[in-house]
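User: My instructor asked us to take a sequence, write out its structure as tokens, and then describe one feature of it. I'm not sure where to start. Here is the sequence I was given:
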Amino acid sequence: MDERSSKYWQERFRQMEEAQHDTSVQKAQEIQEQFDRSLAAIDGKINAWYQRLADNNGVSMQEARKMLDAGELKEFRWNVEEYTRYAEENEISGAWAKQLENASARVHISRLEALKIETQQEVEKLYGNCTDAIDHHIRDTYTSDFYHTAFEVQKGIGVGTAMNRLDPETVEKIVSKPWAVDGKNFSDRLWENKTKLINNMHNSLSRMCITGEAPDRAIEEISKQMGVSKAQAGRVVMTESAAFANKARQDCMEELDVEQFEVVETLDSHTCETCGGMDGKHFPMSEFEVGVTAPPFHPNCRGCTCPYFDDEFDSVGERAARGEDGETYYIPADTTYEEWKKSFVDNGVSDEKFTAQNVVEEARTQSDTHEMNDNIEQRLFGKGIQVNIEGAGKYQEEAFEALKHLDKLTDEYENTVVSYSVGKIPGFQAEMGSAYMMNGKTSVLVSPRAYMANKATDALKLGEKQPLQTTYHEFAHSLSQSREKTDPQFWKEIRKIKREYEGIRGKSNWFDIKISDYASKDVDEFLAEAFTQAKLSDNPSPYSKQVLDVVDKYFKKQSTDGLAEMPDIKFATKKNSAITAKQKFQDTMTVSQAYNELPIKVKQNTSDVTFEFGYDGSACDIWNKTIRVGIGTSKEEVFHEMGHLVENYMMSQADVRKYKEFLVDGLSCNDIMVKTYYDNAGNDIDIYLLKGMNFESEYQSRLYVSNPFDALNGDGTINVDTLGEAISEVFRKYMNGETLSREAQELIEKVIL
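Assistant: Let's start with the prediction itself. The structure tokens for your sequence are:
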């Protein structure tokens, strides 16, 4: 390899890294300044609160635990309403928005609780702004480094080709995917820091009141905690932007067919042993892994990557930068980045395409398509048919068209189909399609090739309907394989038609009555091919019509009820969710099965519920009647979250309160224990639980408080308003067929039977 060329690539990409590093430093400073402003705001709120409530030289816990009076409560609610609007408008944590809603609705709230909410609002706002700022910065970093990598490679080689514009949705998926071995992305790390900061801040405020000390010490502690969090936020900016800058270089070099990459480190007195040892090493692109063979190797790592060529320079250029039309476009050495981007990224793109009107129109069309597809999926799920068309690839729309026809077929005929899949299933492989029986039910497997019009048999006379052939063909097999319907008389009539059909083979009018060559294989394929032609062709063979008459006689439904079989529920998917199509289909099936098992009265009272897929864990948005479905959910999870709706929309609140008082009867602060659970992101968190004989499960005893004092009434008894899982766990166990106490059984059956 030409050593001069090696130094050239190292220097060019080191300059890119320095530019990216400087931009990230500036962004980190901007974010850290936000921490300072938030600390000042929290300091002001604590001092103002202390001055209002100070009695002599201190504030007692008793004073802090007093409920807000009418005037204070009105002021507090006004503040909380403002916080809520801000949270919703700026897409701050949905969990925090819900806490604010709950706080606003409470008639009684202590002064300490009010202070905690006011100070936590500053932290939530801070981290919401940080998350948005880092997210935009990382996206910009990825996009910029992708294009600049392409520019440097093509300019260095001297030839170039047009590059596809980066799709914002594609960039979003890339930057949302964790790159580190711990499986966490930047928002996960920020969330962890935020949670620790809030918990420590609340503990400092509680101790301030317990000891009766002035706020100086609490503010000092919060300031130190803020300092730690500020440093962590800066480290996240630097490390994540470095990771995705290198990820952009990887993706770009792979697109340009670069076969090897080299590690380029900043070598100075601060360079660690690991980075120094990796500098100058080169690897195949197949071994590119951020954190392992490519920087960053540690937080604040300043390394980068560049292309590595060990063959003839000219031949590499020809391979890496030939246009789709086979021509090579030469790039002058003095070409600027702006000139290159205009020619090779923006080339031929009309500005009119990107007008606001056209963008809105395109979005509307896509939205309508997705809504239509979701409706089809819902109908099929409601009929017990599991769908997986993830393997359809670029034939997604053709696959959805096939699903619409499958929907019509299952409305018209007795159905034994339990799954429709595009792609491969372990143990099965289809050239075009196959229908196989398991436990008396049929699964249809379709190859993506089946959607290519030129693969269908012209003799079927299907014209533009050719891509649907496989779906109809395999559905016919599902009918013939039905154990309830495949009696000897049915097959006797089909064989008679086939004999007559084969009897005139070779006659002068053979082409007019021919179905297909495949129809002559055996009687089952004759049935499937004839049914397909009769249903899809505008000019079917008379023998196909005869077969259809027999199929209708034995398999056609006497009446159709369409959507009557589908639960009256709505499905949605979380925006920007990483859930795969396959997982979404599985989760939808689980939800449908669980919903179908609900008592009629529950369905009647929750008919407008929406199930929204793609969350890390399941939860219930009570006010909007929305169940947020965790990826890989179970029926038990669905029952549990439905229990929240049962409690809030079907039960007397007096009955609920009476039952909760039964659960905590005789319990005090001595019965509160702390236990480690896992949150939706898989992180361990400490929660408070009650030890009592009346609870149906451990989780039913969970207290929704940040410290034990918040779970107590003024007289030391348990505040039942802090029990959030009392009814949901009862409903889950009831639906799961588990034994309940007499009190729980009577409570639930009073409203659902």
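For the description part of your assignment, you could build on this observation: The first helix runs from residue 3 to 53. Try explaining in your own words what that tells you about the chain.
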